[in-house]
Amino acid sequence: MNITISDLHFSYAPNVKALNGISLTINAGEQVAIIGQNGAGKTTLVRHLNGLLKPTSGSVSIGDWDTTKHSVAKLASKVGYVFQNPDEQLFSKDVLTEVEFGPKNLGYKKNKIDQLVKRALELTELTGKQETNPYDLSPTWRKMVALASILAMDTPIVIFDEPTTGQDFTNITRIANVIAELKKTGKTVITITHDIDFCAENFERVIALSKGQVLLDGSPREILGQEEILAQTYVDPPQLTRLGKKIGLQETVITPQEFLKALAQRAG
Amino acid sequence: MYIARASGLHQLHPLTKVLLTFCLLIAGLALPGNWTSYLIILLVIFPLSVWGKVFPNLLRITWLVSLPFAISVILIQSLFWGTGTPLFEFWIFAPKLEGARYAVISLGKIILVMSDFLLFSLTTRPDALMIALKQAGMPSSIAYIIVTTLQIVPSFQRKGATILDAQRSRGLETEGNLFVRAKALVPIVLPLVLGSLMEVEERAIAIEARAFNSRQTETSLIEIPDTQLQKNFRTVILIVMFLLIIFGILWRL
Amino acid sequence: MAFINIQNLTYQYPTAKAPVLQNINLQINEGEFVAVIGANGAGKSTLCYALAGFVPHFFKGEFSGVVEVNGIQSSQAALAEWVLNVGLAFQNPFNQISGAKYTVFEEIAFGLENIGVEREQMKSRIEAAMKLTGIAELADRSPYSLSGGQQQRVALTSILVMQPKLLVLDEPTSQMDPIGTREIFAVIRDLSNSGMTVVMAEHKMEWIANFADRVIALKDGQILLEGKPNEVLTSDVLAENGFGISRYTSTAREAQKRNLWKKDSLPVTLEEAVEGFRRK
Ligand SMILES: Nc1ncnc2c1ncn2[C@@H]1O[C@H](COP(=O)(O)OP(=O)(O)O)[C@@H](O)[C@H]1O
Ligand SMILES: Nc1ncnc2c1ncn2[C@@H]1O[C@H](COP(=O)(O)OP(=O)(O)O)[C@@H](O)[C@H]1O
Ligand SMILES: [Mg+2]
Ligand SMILES: [Mg+2]
Question: Which atom of ligand 1 is nearest to the CA of A19?
């Protein structure tokens, strides 16, 4: 299911323009990271993908659905959206009920729901916490519950808004595993993140936004080496990319594996 | 709820507006006559809101918040009013002229309270109010509680909207018949309440960390202009309020 | 005598079954910039609260041991007095506004009003602080309509402006963009150079390595390691305990195994990595 965005403009108020003519196509099964400075319009952009916001002008389609013609609740069967703040969505007495909520709304059959929920809990390592009240969990785990509750909806497109903020190493690895698993099952993943190393290591396409426009769009290798342009939107290249450049490696490297390989080649 | 406008009403000292608000309220409740509330709304509150350039906003919000009261008062009267001149009969409804009269009169009081309060909050900056209350000798913790309570409605609206978005994104139907809407209530109201409880604790830390309870004499960033004329006016309002209360008590004896 | 002196600090939240901080001993000098690292749940925030006086004064619970700042013990002082010397920006930026103010500029004034700073001085201090944290252009915005990163800057500025002797920051850059994060670290470094003591819970190893004087690694409420960034962040103990480390360190460790890193010590900053990997 492709996402087509054409000449999208959006203003929160007549003088608060957040998106300024964005055109993009995201193909089914792509793993896309969206980066860019605070206030660049990242959240505003992804909120258009499930119809929470409607274009001021231009259009957004999910497959052949124009987002202005379908309710958010209907679009939810195609696009899952994990909010940045889990406390805005958790309400159930236990984790299990919370995770079942989405798939039940979508009207799936009982045994499909059971399967999806079980899978989502496994992926987020919440198995064993099913009976806990989400509000008794730490903020980190609450974030995982929110994530599981969207995964269980089994949508072809999944959006994460800053899943890595405030997370420790173990949790970032956990989230990376979830994304890898989604990729394996052919889902489209769109993730907003400020963690550029995480971005370099887990995505096949990077879109840098700046002031409501697309600044750069391409593979991590093409995009993440462009230090001067990225600086316009307050982003540094990944650590190893900066290092590679400084020690004079020929090509742009972005991951540890690439760096070590290039180093070995140079050593001969 | 405050709406920034350049108007004379906006520039009045917050205390002047507090007193005026109470005075209108007391007038509506203390003065005799069945239609007094409506007269005050038409002849004082509406003109004042025009002066404050918030008339359309006042009208709209008053309508929105009074409507549920209106519906329930009218329903109850037409169901349970015992004897009187029947207006019409339909199924279990049998409204009487006297009942309808009573409903309209009591609604006047509700609308007065709403519009009076709205007039105040649409034209008074909460922080200016807080400073004014403190300068008038109110302890800052009480002033703070009053001011943040005044902002509960917009703050709930803001949070409610975000939660609504999150749940719709999980496939929750919120549009449709009454049953659909009623079912949507729990997943929206619960995070709102739990979130607010958490917020109260964190707010307490935030203001404490910024020396809210320190015993130093406080200063204020913004100046709140006051005039001798307004001071005199406030004294007059106070006297009027006092007289109104006395009058109200005597009248009812 | 150290500026901050923590002795045998053990603390348990009232609703918890076990202590979250266990037997913490720590001395910090005036003007030091100390970073606290650790997994989620390690006790970083609780340690921040203990320094800022909210543990035990606000949260209650079972508190034993000593937290002393500038010669005064927190358990002997009233919280209202304690906060005059110790500023805290806590983890969640969303609820960190007073709720009684109408613009960002006035929001930042809240603390200064409470300590009775005179109006003209208040304005110049706010302007200077906003310039420092890069939010001058937000002055007239409503504190509610900001994005996470912007709210975080406002929360930080609201505390900075009060010029506390000790600044306690709990993950102050979590929502910020990468270069914004680096800039805030640089600002904090400057403050510490000019004599402010800073304790900051953080995950971002590269900037800790570049800017902090000392690193405390917490695990399950205990101090696992403590020392200079290049000692702590390159320690095997850290890696074995599931801490995140910068790509410079992890890649150099890998390179070392393949004989591509020749130095004895591992790098923690870009400069050190460049130094070690550069072709001789
Ligand atoms: N609800 C809102 N009302 C008004 N302005 C908003 C609102 N949400 C975001 N903005 C503004 O729109 C711009 C883009 O915001 P956002 O999409 O949240 O940025 P990002 O996610 O890239 O940090 C920012 O200038 C922000 O202040
Ligand atoms: N108010 C509280 N009441 C009870 N337990 C708490 C409270 N706050 C934190 N905890 C618990 O204390 C432990 C340490 O938490 P915290 O200091 O927030 O860690 P960190 O900041 O390193 O993530 C966690 O297990 C957490 O669940
Ligand atoms: Mg955002
Ligand atoms: Mg914490």
Answer: 14
